[in-house]
Structures are given as structure tokens and as C-alpha cells.
Design brief:
The chain is an all-beta fold and 93 residues long. The protein has two domains: 55 residues, no CATH class; 37 residues, no CATH class. The chain has no helices and nine strands. Strands 2-1-3 form a three-stranded antiparallel sheet, with no helix packed on it. It is elongated, with a radius of gyration of 18 Å.
């Protein structure tokens, strides 16, 4: 069983599981919709130049080498969450 991303206008609009078997013909889609192996992508991702990009997690984050990066590095000690209003990492107790 493979997971496919259903893409329209560069956006993943759905994912489906599909097993290519004689009794299971490939699904058909409306004009302009394609299906490609999802490779971990989900609804809300974009698909450009054969690359899936996750949705931007926060407005302040930038895309670097297809990964979203916070304005400052996450500390390595402990567990943190991002606080967009202060543009900083907050340590969880």
C-alpha cells in the first residue's frame, strides 16, 4: 500500500492509500489534479519542483533548504515551544 498526495494548483488537497492491483484500478481525478507518492506530505503542504514543503508554522519563520527555521536557534537543553509574540523559545517545566 502506497500513500499518494492529491495535488491541485501546487497544493496538497488530500492523501489516499492505494494498492496497485488488477482488482483495484487507479483512481481518476478532475482536470488539473495529479497524484504523486506522498513521501510524508499531508494536506496543507505545497508541491513545487517535485518537492513537498510543510505549511509555515509561524509568520516569523523562514524557509531554508526546504525546512522552516525560527528567527533564533532552539536551545538544546530540555523541551521548548515557540512563542511568536516574543519571538523566543519558552522552556517547558
Amino acid at each position: 500500500m502506497e500513500i499518494y498526495a492529491i495535488i491541485k494548483d501546487g497544493a496538497v488537497i488530500n492523501t489516499i492509500e492505494y494498492a496497485e492491483q488488477p482488482s483495484n484500478p487507479p483512481p481518476s481525478f478532475e482536470e488539473g489534479v495529479i497524484a504523486v507518492l506522498a513521501n510524508g506530505a499531508g494536506v496543507g503542504y505545497t508541491y513545487t519542483n517535485n518537492i513537498f514543503t510543510a505549511p509555515q508554522p509561524f509568520p516569523s519563520w523562514t524557509l531554508v533548504d526546504n525546512k522552516w527555521v525560527a528567527p533564533q536557534a532552539k536551545p538544546e537543553d530540555g523541551m521548548y515551544i515557540w512563542n511568536e509574540s516574543t519571538l523566543s523559545w519558552v522552556k517547558l517545566s
